[in-house]
Amino acid sequence: MMFTLLIFLALFLLAVYAVLNLYPAFGGKHTDERKSIYAKSRQYRNGKFVNQIETSWDTSFSSMISMMKDFIKGNPERRPAAPLPMDTFTPLAEKDSATKITWFGHSAFLLEIEGKTILFDPMFGKAPTPFPLRNQRYSRELPFKIEELPVVDAVVLSHDHYDHLDYGTIIKLKGKVKNFIAPLGVGAHLQRWGISPDIIQEHDWWDEFSFEGLQLACNPARHFSGRSLTDRNATLWCSWVIKGQGANIFYSGDGGYGPHFKEIGEKYGPFDLTVMECGQYDARWAAIHMLPEETVQAHQDVQGKVMIPVHWGAFTLSLHAWHDPIERAVRSAEEAGVRIATPRIGETIALAEYKIPKSAWWKRTDSY
Predict the structure, then answer these.
(1) What is the rounded distance in angstroms from the CA atom of residue 121 to the CA atom of residue 106?
(2) Proportion of the chain in helix, strand, coil states, percent, rounded to 5
(3) Are strands 116-120 and 304-310 parallel, antiparallel or unpaired?
(4) The dihedral of CA 222, 347, 315, 176: what is its sign?
(5) Residue 365 has what pLDDT?
(6) What is the pTM of this model?
(7) Integer angstrom CA distances of residue 246 from 71, 95, 271, 303, 355
(8) Domain positions in the chain
(9) What residues of the chain score a pLDDT lower than 50?
(10) Fold of 73-89+97-353
(11) Pairing between strand 100-103 and 348-350?
(12) pLDDT at residue 138 in the model
């Protein structure tokens, strides 16, 4: 019996090892040569990337017990009862110079600026997990078909978590994308998935560079990274600045509130539009995911004019009601005198027209 158990355990461990190393969704590994390059970064210490300030979340026994109780108790409004309404997104046959943004749910959005098309964190898969059997996308479908997308000038990534970097999506997109721009280390995942290193750029915090006539800057965020059991913080996470001749845009990526927002605002603001994380939060892990009220404060810190809350409306990754992020953000924005846009999934906003969508469309969707 003992011999049989040992054989079973050995086979199980071998299977786990094989899955972690052979299943492509887990991404790539870093060579010693690449690690030596990352070691030059001020954010890289003892083989891992770190935040500007101390960042941890409550993992005490009492906190774990309280989370277990909350999960067992459940929340009847964690998911909408029916697929969310969407606008149909139809890309223009010809690019124009107008600055436009289209949100696709969660943190995925398309920025059209000065004739360039840039996709941010294009997670178009069914679920944010390497094994997408549960936690399916609210809308069930996308407001477009990936094969109908035109050529994309760049995919810009904020970090390597599954709800931002999706293996299946990259496989479907890679023939349509001219460039991939990511924080340090993320390129290893892309290369494993067949993306040529010639079209991958990796950047550190405070890197500034030109791209097709635009000015981009990779900036700090307060978060973490990893796709498997063995690569925690092996890659960097970041926020982004995109500046053209007529518009200045900020995307927060994921993260908790911190002093980096004021630093970014002082260096690169004011911003015509901010795309700010708002969702999948909890007071117990607020250091890595802002609460909605902090989202509004961060928008003010970076000197934003109009804010679009993202990181909600697609998946359930926390305990709050699915509509809680947008309702709290709207309420906080109104109290602070902040202009907040609430586009439907697939709805395109043209910045030049300043027709800021304010419809509370989520209230027309019943929850269970």
Answers:
(1) 9
(2) 30, 20, 50
(3) unpaired
(4) negative
(5) 58
(6) 0.92
(7) 47, 16, 11, 17, 17
(8) 73-89+97-353
(9) 11-13, 15, 17, 366-368
(10) Metallo-beta-lactamase; Chain A (3.60.15)
(11) antiparallel
(12) 94
